Amino acid sequence: MTAQPQPTQLNRRRLLTGAAAVAAVGAFGGAAIAPDVAHAVGDGFGLRIVSPPNNHGGRLHYYRFATDAIGWDPAVNVLLPDGYHTSGKRYPVLYLLHGGAQDFREFHLHQNIVNLTAGREIIVVMPDAGTGWYCNPVSTFVGPRDWEQFHMHQLLPWIDANFRTFAEYDGRAVAGFSMGGFGALKYAAKYFGHFCSVSSHSGPASLRRDGHLVVHWANLSSAAKELGGGTVYGAPVFDQARITADNPIERIPSYYHKRVFLVAGTLQNAPVDWWDVINEGQVLAGQREFRAALSHAGIPHVGLERPGGHTFRHDMFIQDLDGMMGRLLRAG
């Protein structure tokens, strides 16, 4: 079912595996004051901290959780803005989602996220997602892998309870690369009231095109790397209702009143091999289809194409971040 809008005023090649939460403490402008990160609460929202928080040089904080949603202990990096500990301000939050064959460390270790966000008054949350396509799978043979449950119903309210955030629509953005770009588009549509800005960096936006090719990729990659032979969307028979619920191109009305940013590579001026052709070629086609649907619906968006293949472009992220900061509530 399509969500009803509620108006509110590397160069690393990777396989393209690339409203319970808002009731949390302080959600939607609640009066509770979130504790400082130094006193972060471990228990609650179905999460328990299982390793001591680790401060990577001041801004970057690491947490590992036990949760019934995931059969192992996923981790999260939380990047705080300069001056967080002394400012007393509340801040907007960006949920930044990694691609397939990556993990919560991707943007810190390989994409220079600390420097890319220097001087920006925003909290950046970078969670583990396995190769699970930001979904609760149809089947798994290795224990629970409910990544959507973990992110949207556990982690998001935990962040709002433990950091000084704006726990409301205009206080959150979601963005991602590759599989994470799909996850960002999916979460922004399925959880319409959670994010005012959504960005997909080389992420697919259409699951059914070309004979459900992206659904097949999701099933195959998750079966091999994540689910011990299980699948995200079912096989040999697809769960069509689940595909429709997750498919950005089928959720166009859910992008009204949001800032939408899309970028994909054209494969020009890049070493073209099967990896890039399979990944970015399908991404580009799907994003073009998605952009056309947004335009037909009269939904403003930024849709960019750049030379090259399947990679996270730092200059595009900076442009995206500028746009996010203009849309999100300002720290204060």
TrEMBL record:
User: Which one Pfam family would you cite for this protein?
Assistant: Esterase
What catalytic reaction does the record list?
an acyl-CoA + a 1,2-diacyl-sn-glycerol = a triacyl-sn-glycerol + CoA; 2 alpha,alpha'-trehalose 6-mycolate = alpha,alpha'-trehalose 6,6'-bismycolate + alpha,alpha-trehalose
* Annotated TM spans: none
So which residues are the signal peptide here? Answer: 1-34
Taxonomy, superkingdom? Bacteria
Q: Give the matching InterPro entries.
A: AB_hydrolase_fold (IPR029058), Esterase-like (IPR000801), Mycobacterial_A85_antigen (IPR050583), TAT_signal (IPR006311)
Q: Which UniProt keywords apply?
A: Acyltransferase, Hydrolase, Signal, Transferase
A GO molecular-function descriptor? trehalose O-mycolyltransferase activity
Q: What is its EC number?
A: 2.3.1.122, 2.3.1.20
**Record-stated family:** Belongs to the mycobacterial A85 antigen family.
| Protein name per UniProt | Acyl-CoA:diacylglycerol acyltransferase
Q: Which organism is it from?
A: Salinispora arenicola
